[in-house]
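Can anyone check this?
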Amino acid sequence: MTFLDQIARRACRYFWEQADPHTGLVRDRARLDRRPDNAHHRDVASIAATGFGLTGLAIAADRGWLPVQAARQRARRTLRFLLHHAPQEQGWFYHFLNLHTGRRAWQSEVSSIDTALLMAGVLTVGEAWDDRELRQLAAALYRRMNFPWMLAGDRYLLSHGWTPEKGFIPYRWNNYSEASILYFLAIGSPSFPIPAGAWYAWKRSWVNYSGFRYIAGAAPLFIHQYSQAWMDLRGRRETMGDRVDYFENSQIATRAQRMFCMRLHARFRDYGPRAWGLTASESAHGYVAWGGPPVGHHPLQPFPDGTLVPCAPAGSLMFLPRECLECLENLYQKYGRETGIWGVYGFCDAFNPLTGWRSPHVLGIDQGISLLSAANARDGMVWRWFMRQDAMQNALDRTGLNSRV
């Protein structure tokens, strides 16, 4: 088995073992050693992790790591629970739910982006198998999403979410971000679409770093990865504005971050061309949204401290397979056994080789982006499943991304 397959198979194990077999909801995080987590996290599911996990069921069945019938049955139970039992508002789901009951957890918000990631997984399993019930359930969940409602009075820009206590969150998805898939789903919706102009309404902030020019700002690397785990934008370019090729843009952003880490070698001796990668992750100081170049301009994106985050290169396998796999193999060979960063679910969420700190957890969304990116790097299977739907083709047409260049 190749190392790429090892990464993918262990991530699939996470999504099978860390989901409730009746609701199908996937834990937000779990301990790498499988021991029960603390009470605060133990029974909390993430809807975004569930979206990744649904896609993981299709990948595992396709690769023969799970029996097809078992994977399909788990997917059916999950979609039935989401459609008939999980609390929702206008078709949108709460960010965090109780793993076993589906009740709202942590007073979380009805999340627009996390529902979009969930729906991407829902639609993927609706296409991965020739299964009439799965296709009908997926279509019903998607058609129920009221996208104009999430505009909250704006013409184009979607809100981050809503709570029953305070109403709509005042922040908008108004910059290039992980929300590309949210807008893609909204514009392609067969029941509640928003205007195609929404795609061009958010800001594109250009970065120039060490000869690289790309759209990003100082945001974590995952903003380039999450949407394109499902959306196949290879060779597609916008027809308006800067006419961005987002797949190429994400390749450049990954190269820029690799260079950024290499240039920090004098400060952090473990950083280098085969040991790099920062994105939002756990750290010795709590959960941190590690940024990329330029960095240090925002208090929520602190300067690196030597932490390495394996899901950063893993999530970019679909963009730069050679460089990312080379990094991951090196991390495994150099640190995997002696530091305990590799376990039954693959890499831990993050570790710092300078201080000896390592996260005891794996996070569902980080396992998810590693798995889907590895699958796409191997043969583009997730892209094929997701993009062959009529709604996705409609979104390509309406946004002007339908022509390959």
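Reply from J.R.: I decoded it. Residues 3-399 form a domain with the Glycosyltransferase fold (CATH 1.50.10.140).
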